[in-house]
# Entry
Amino acid sequence: MNRGVFRRLRVPLLCAVGALAAMHASATTLLQMNLEQLCERSERIFRGTVLNSRVGTVEAGGVSVPTVTYTIRVEEAFKGEFKTVKGVPVAEVRMVGKSDPVRSGDRQRFPLLRDLPTIKVGETYLLLTTAPSAVGLSTTVGLGQGRFHVFGKTGSEQAVNEYRNRGLFGEPGVAARAAASAPTLGPTPTGPVPYAVLADRIRAIVGAR
# Structure
């Protein structure tokens, strides 16, 4: 790469590095992780309903990075600490926001972070989130792997992440084997699983640490 090309790419590269540095390394590396690995890399694990979201920006490495902050009513906590607002436990999660493609002349530059987890106001999720960075940004561990949509009738809810739970129960380690007494799912399923079973597995993994 010649020096002229490098100079033109320097700002976009710094922007990408700043955004990536704002997240936990394990979250931005798109490696397939099982449930035990997701739990190990998370600072907080909780189920909740998204109350609202607001967009903003944060300065990272001299670059303004788009953000979206979610306020979530915590309905079940598995790991981490949560603040209380008017007697209700609440989690705020500020993530890198999605940005539109940037056009320069006849060229169009697409954002580097296009696989950010999808979270919608009013929906219920089980989230495994990373520790906030120095500029207050976090994400779900493994991006869409640590974002489980919870849906269905009360008492028979299902949960599925953005990768349809692929590899979620593969190659369990010592801590995951502590869940042996929990209801079984059979051989490495793909697709939604009972939320109650997933919650039991998480409790066993977290409790074994």
